Fold this protein.
Amino acid sequence: MIKYLEKKPMIMIVIGIMGISMSAIFVKYSQAPSVVTAAWRLLWTVGLMSPAVWGFKKQRQELLTTNKKTVVLCAVSGLFLGLHFWSWFESLKHTTVASSTAIVCTEVIWVALGYCLFLKGKITKKAAAAIAVTLAGSMLIAYSDSGEGGNHLYGDMLALGAAVAVACYTLIGRIMRETMSTTAYTYIVYVFCAAALVILGAVQGYSLTDGGISGVVVGLLLSVFSTILGHSIFSWCLKYLSPTFVSASKLCEPVVAAGFAAVLFGEIPGAVQVVGGAVIMGGVLFYSLIE
């Protein structure tokens, strides 16, 4: 089966797209507070990864010999990832799946800006144009949602915060991956991310039992389908497909997720919202192609 999939990596790409596209849908069904749902997602992920991580001598030794500076940086990375999950999950309570997922997809743009500002990278004129286009698309969505009433605009701002937070996580990961394996890095980050979300929930007055079985089940679904059968599959595909193609394929998420939301929740995006989403994805796709 593995050899067959290695010859047909596009099958895995489709599975990965479906996996990440279900994230917003699962969250919408959760009756638990956003921070509780996010905490359960990471707790399940750590639990499912632990046997594989600690069961192999090489990975176990890497974890046990990790220095304090590395652990601290992983902890900071985990904190940003936790803020991403909380902010994004919370945004879905206030705005539509289409708006939220499209804005979160601007992550790559914030990574580019962070890379330029903090890691002494350079942004070409074409990349700057792609960033401007993407931000213009975000403004179109914000303009559209501002006229919808309720807290749609607040939800858009939370989604933007989620995109910036995950960009910080990605930038730290770029540094840490130079000396750490993917498995060790992600495992340590997930452990700290789970801890941060549990603490954040406690600060907000929530416990892991708030929302009943809903948070537990949705967290498990997110862990299995969106993390393991979503993001992990994209990482696997990098061995067989170009990074640009893999990154670009993730742009299918807002379209697929919006389709699910239209059928399941009756969330039909308006014309300006559709145009804004298309502009965002166009800008991100253009950036992916020129980098």
